Amino acid sequence: MKAVAAFVFLTSVSLVASAGAPERVQFTGTLQLDDSLPIALDVQLPSKQAAKLHLSDGSTLELATPGNSASPDGALIRLIAPSGKVMHTATIPDSGVTSTSFAYQICAGEVTYMSPAPAVVPACGA
Predict the structure, then answer these.
(1) Per-residue confidence (pLDDT) for residue 5, from 0 to 100
(2) What would the pLDDT profile of 39-93 be if each residue is shown by its tens digit?
(3) pLDDT tens digit sequence for 50-63
(4) In 11, 19, 43, 125, which residue has its Cα 20 to 30 A from 97's Cα atom?
(5) Would you call 21 exposed, middle or buried from its count of C-beta atoms within 10 A (0-12, 13-18, 19+)?
């Protein structure tokens, strides 16, 4: 009986160890702000890290990899308006995610989130 208990314990320890956070996560995205040209992003962040990208219109895009205090169990994508209001938050609840693609379309203050990102984000009013 002790041998069985030890085997179960060792198996569960190895499964937990193999399910750790990836070394890095690649965020590939597009932001379409009204009628301006789309902004393409391709950012790689190390495990347990976060970054803030300040956009030319004053908004901020926050990205976090799994294990970060902002998103301990998965990746995080958050769009914040120049006023500081959170416009949208997306979480990818996979602690082993290595890449994700997304697109934001912002037309007259209305936000549309797409994931995975389409090949071409439609223009506002299309």
Answers:
(1) 34
(2) 899 999 998 999 999 988 889 999 999 988 888 888 999 999 999 999 999 999 8
(3) 999 998 888 999 99
(4) 11
(5) buried
Answer yes or no: are the C-beta atoms of 95 and 66 closer than 8 Å: yes
Q: Residue 104 carries which DSSP code?
A: E
* 14/46 Cα distance (integer angstroms): 23
Whole-prediction pTM: 0.78
**76, amino acid identity:** L
- d(Cα 88, Cα 90) in Å, to the nearest integer? 7
d(CA 75, CA 90): 8
